[in-house]
Amino acid sequence: MLERFFRFLGEGMPEDVRADLHREAFRPAVVVTQGRQARTFLTELHAWRGDPPVLPDVPVTVISGSLADGMPRRVRDAATAAGRYRAAQSRQGRHVVAARSGHYIPATESDLIAAEIRRLVLPPAG
């Protein structure tokens, strides 16, 4: 049932990526893992608000979606503001807004993610 509901995630993906998604993302073990994460998520989130992880002095990129796609606009705006704030906590932080994406940035703008990874790991040209 989950695979049918989230079918849109595979739209526009290369065939091999869609095959990986089909083979791996909807297995019963994924639901078990998500259930385990859900048991501690809110407790961890609350703890991080008071004592956020300290980022080492390394380049950090936070990518935020810009489309509300199913969430109220105020929630999307708050999530984007949180990403901007988190990036600002690092001396080498950078906040990038994915203009064509909501929550599923890897599915909608994988090219943006790849470009940011290249920017982080490759030396500047010239």
Tell me what the structure shows.
This protein has 6 helices and 2 strands; from the N terminus they run αααβαβαα. It has helices at residues 2-5, 15-24, 28-50, 73-88, 105-108, 110-121; strands at residues 60-65, 93-98. Strand 1 (60-65), helix 4 (73-88) and strand 2 (93-98) form a beta-alpha-beta unit. The model has no long low-confidence stretch (mean pLDDT 88). By secondary structure, the protein is mainly alpha-helical. It has a two-stranded parallel sheet with strand order 1-2.
Features:
mainly alpha, 2 strands, about 130 residues, single chain, two-stranded parallel sheet
Radius of gyration: 17 Å
* Large-scale geometry: globular
Number of helices: 6
Share of helical residues: 40-55%
Q: How can the largest sheet be summarized?
A: 2 strands, parallel
- Structural class of the secondary structure composition? mainly alpha
- Quote the distance from N terminus to C terminus: 51 Å
Mean pLDDT: 88
Number of beta-strand segments? 2
Proportion of beta-strand residues: 5-15%
Output the strand order for the largest sheet: 1-2
- The arrangement of helices and strands along the chain is HHHEHEHH
What low-confidence regions span 5 or more consecutive residues with pLDDT below 50? none
